[in-house]
Amino acid sequence: MLFTSYFAKSKALKEAGIVEVSISRSVPAWYNGLSYTKLAPTWEILKKYKADGDWNAYVTEYKRQVLSKLDAHQVYAEITKLVEDYTGHKFQHVALLCFERSGDNCHRNIVSDWFFENGIICKEWSSAL
Known about the structure:
Layout: E1 2-6, H1 10-15, E2 19-22, E3 34-35, H2 43-52, H3 55-65, H4 72-87, E4 94-98, H5 107-117, E5 122-124
Parallel strand pairs: 1-4, 1-5, 2-3, 2-4
Helix pairs in contact: 2-3
């Protein structure tokens, strides 16, 4: 199963047996897991959003500059291979991580919707699952 979450949930994710894959432009200093930066927003998008706070413009630019250049099924296959190569066994549960807490404006929500629109289930992880 493919999930989304954020770095602060790292300990709980590991305890649940979920492999973490960062989709952020950068990671916390303590993070030593996998990264898949093809899904990270560009610095340009991040800087503009920090300056103007326009979430709709962020979504539009993220889709235009990042997602429009990718194929969801190929990305899923690449993440699957990355995880399998790292763990040495078949893909099971993976969480795509970034910094923002659940419910905040965040590119991982855009990514989750994009996967879903392309027939791939991806939802926010909850310890209640």
